[in-house]
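Submission sheet (multi-component)
Chains listed below:
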Amino acid sequence: MPDLQKPAKQSLADRIATSAVWRSIFRHGYADTPRNRVLQVSANVWLHLHPSKVRRHGIRYRHTWCAGGLTFLLYLVTVVTGVILMFYYRPTQEFAYFDIKYLDFDIPFGILMRNMHRWAAHGMIIFIWLHMFRVFMTGSYKPPREFNWVVGVNLLVLTMLMSFTGYLLPWDQLAIWAVTVGTNMARATPLLGHEGPFGPELGMSPRYDVRALLLGGSIVGPPALMRFYVLHCIFIPIVVSILMILHFWRVRKDGGISGPL
Amino acid sequence: MADLQEGGSGENIWSRRNVLGLGGWLGIIGALNAGGAALVAMLFPRVLFEPPTSFKVGPPATFNVGEVSERFMKDYRVWIVREESGFYALSGICTHLGCTPRWLGPENKFKCPCHGSGFRRDGTNFEGPAPRPLERVKIVRADDGQIQIDKAVKFRKELGEWTKPGSYLKFSGNA
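Outcome: structure written.
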């Protein structure tokens, strides 16, 4: 009691640290003890993904090329720049092409954001392949890491789907015909495509099959643009993010970055 | 402990908890399946806002003999070809991967810009990756004398369908 009633020489930092607002956010002070220093590393929400113990050879760039980490960094770049692009882009027949033009030629730094998004996406694909090549060559797909390899293959496919769906959004001739070609391949999907093996027998038609599901019709038109936009900006990124969390967590649980176990 | 059960024969009878549990799980599975089915159904709209597949292109006299008409390419993606003996309509969809070929008059061929497939005037493929001829679509005279096209009916040469009625409109004269 007597101590609390002596506010005489309280510094500004102390007054902030004892204020009601500060105490409502940080419930107690931080005691700089060896135990807390360990907890700071092992219980940190960001660092908990990181292995608690890293082998010396594991962090050599020569060994990992940091390809997986760079893939993730490029993914973050596409997310940030992509959200910024979403402020201007409207996925409709009337506006899509001209919004891209607007971004390229009029909006300050619009062309920079668009090109960062584009090149980060290209880079992500390149680094995924490098990452897979490295994982393959170092034998890191072998048990107990075999499940994480499967998760990684799913991430590869989803990343390429993000590239494919994003390809349509500029809504120019290149985009429309590239997606026409790409979705025509879906006609030949086994069971689910109207030109694929056992497709017609299962009642698939040009109007009702997996291609029509993807396009929202029978041609690459406005419904296809909207569907690809939603897949590109919402659906696939959410699935990819969930799988990435699983992927990074399993790296730690399966024995850390590549190396003999 | 069996002797403690009432009646002594309760072992194989489902308890109330089992029945309600099974019912609950069936309800959850059923609801999820119904929701999934509703989602799939929702992704197939009843109405497509796409160009009609059947349309009239005007009387025969508006086409010149020996001409590959591109007038209806932009809206309907078909070429109307008139010969001495009649008409046929070619679908403007490349049989390779679905791009739109271009009619190159001086070279007397259709050429796809995507992967270089080439088709002769009658639609037969002769160069590039296209595996089969362009498809012809139904062409008939309507009651009012105009030429009527129906893109929903297709005729494929490799199936011998170019001799079927509707694949070719016999016409000579100026009527």
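Remark: Chain A has a mean pLDDT of 89.
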